[in-house]
Amino acid sequence: MAFHFKQFKIEQENAPFKIGTDGLLLGAWAAHEQAKNILDIGTGTGLIALMMAQRFPLAAIEAIELNPQAAKIASHNFEQSPWKDRISTQIGDFKSHSFAQTFDLLVSNPPFFSSGKLSEMTGKNLARHNIELTLAELMESSSKLLSKKGVLGIVLPYDLMEETINIGSQFDFFPKRICKVLPTPNSAPKRFLVEFSFVKTKLQTTELVLEESGRHNYSATYKALTRPFLLDK
């Protein structure tokens, strides 16, 4: 069954990894006022690429995916969208793929598990475990593809924040914005959204609470962020 958004839908029945809050948050949060070329790294179902297409009506969006099955699903979702003429799918390894240009905005909801038991499903392993793309590899390749005034947006577990910033500094990336994501007002952050650029500026840090008082009772901030996309917001 398709997951319907206000302006597009995602079919994910056979997708190695389904739509999640992480991708939705990054797609709604990542920003570049004058983005003309956008790349979604590890597109999965194509969710973030489609959100970019909705938010940036003048931009051309490329989406790269290593898993052929996921790439096929993403391509189908792009073809069913209002922006099929502005989104293209690349099947391949982000680390070695040859792109025709640099990008104003790179976005990625990357695999982040470096340990733990692997699934019997190879596709799910690639989506969740950094088997084929480590943080350092993501940063290194991104540094070669990002335009001088471009932005790299990532969503990751909160306990990787310090490591992510340290790795970024090795490739001349400076954190520009950080949003700490808390499940509830009284809980510790579980995720963080980070925006990197080559230009050092004053770091802007914010917090986003997902649920305020009970399951599915979403905060006003979360509703405002996702309202352009979700049907019930």
Structure description:
Helix 1 packs parallel to helix 2 (47-55). Helices cover 28% and strands 26% of the residues. It is an alpha/beta fold and 233 residues long. The chain has a single domain (3-226), classed as Vaccinia Virus protein VP39 (Rossmann fold), CATH 3.40.50.150. It contains seven helices and ten strands. It has an eight-stranded mixed β-sheet. Residues 122-130 have low confidence and may be disordered.
Q: What summary fits the major beta sheet?
A: 8 strands, mixed
Rg over C-alpha atoms, rounded to the nearest angstrom: 17 Å
CATH superfamily: Vaccinia Virus protein VP39
The name CATH uses for the topology is: Rossmann fold
Order of helices and strands: EEHEHEHEEHHEHEEEH
Structural class designation: alpha/beta
Q: Give average pLDDT, whole number.
A: 91
- Which CATH class? Alpha Beta
- Poorly predicted runs are 122-130
Indicate the multimeric state.
single chain
Q: Architecture, CATH level 2? A: 3-Layer(aba) Sandwich
Q: How many structural domains are formed by the residues?
A: 1
In terms of DSSP E residues, the strand content is: 25-35%
What count of helical segments does DSSP give? 7
Query: Can you list the strand order of the major beta sheet?
Result: 5-4-3-6-7-9-8-10
